[in-house]
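Re: weekly structure request thread

Next one in the queue (264 aa):
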Amino acid sequence: FKKLFSYFCFITYYQGKVEFTYDELTTFLRKVKIENLTFDVESIIDDLVNSICVIYKDGLNYRFAHRSFQEYFTAIFLKELSDENLCKMGLEMIKKDSFRATHDSVFPMLYDMSAERVEQNIFVPLLKKIEEDCEGDKYDFYLSQMDLTLEFVDFDSPDDIRLAVRMDTGDESVRFIRKFSFRYRDPSREYSDGKDFLSYLKKEINYEIGETLNVRDFIHIKEFADLLRKTWIGLSVETIADLKNILENKKKKGDIDLNELLVL
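Done, posted below.
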C-alpha cells in the first residue's frame, strides 16, 4: 500500500495536481503499475479516504488532506529508484519546475532520507550541467548567476546591524543548489561581520540602513567586490563554487573507506 501510494503521489505531484474529480482519481490510480501487485481501485480510494484519511472528499472533488502527504510520499518514491533513474527523474523535476523544486519539501525530505544518493545523483550532475557555461573563476561565474539584492537591517537594536539577502531572483537551478549549500560550509572558515563593507557603502554611495542595493549594479567595482567576498554572502558563493569538488572528493573518500574494509 505504501509503495502504491508513493507512485500515486509522484504521478500527481509531477502533474501539479492536488485536487481531483472521481474520474481523475481513478485514472491516476490505474496508471500505477507495480510488478506482482494487483489492487481494486475503489477499495484503495475507500482506504485513502476513510481508513488513513490522507485524501478527503470536498464536495464533488477529492483533495490531499495536507500537501505534505503528497510531498513526503513523492520523496519516498524517488528514494526507491535506482541511481540512474533517480538522476534522470530528479533533474527532470528540477527542469520542469525549478521554483517548486526549490521551495517545497520534496527534495529536503529526500535529502534527509538519503543524503549521499542525492549528492551524487542529483547535485553533482546538476552542478556539471550548470558549469558547462562556466569560463574562468567559478566564484565570479556563480555570483553572476545570482541576481542578489542586499540590505543591511537593524535587528534587535541600532547596534545590531546585519547584512541580509533581501531577494534572490537569479538562475533557478543555482537557487536550488544554494538552498542546500549551507550544509557544506566550512565551519572553521571565518568571515567578516560586514562592518567594513557597510562603512564603504556609507562613504562611497551614501548608503543608509534599510536601503536595498542590487549586487549587479556594483560588482564591477573592485573594492565593493572584495568586501562582499569577505562577508557570509561571499562565503556562501564560494561554497557553491567549490561544491562539485567537495562532493566528488567526499565520494572518493567513501570509496576508499569501503575498500579498506576488504583489506585483511
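The two ends are 44 Å apart (CA to CA). The mean pLDDT is 92.
Next request, please.
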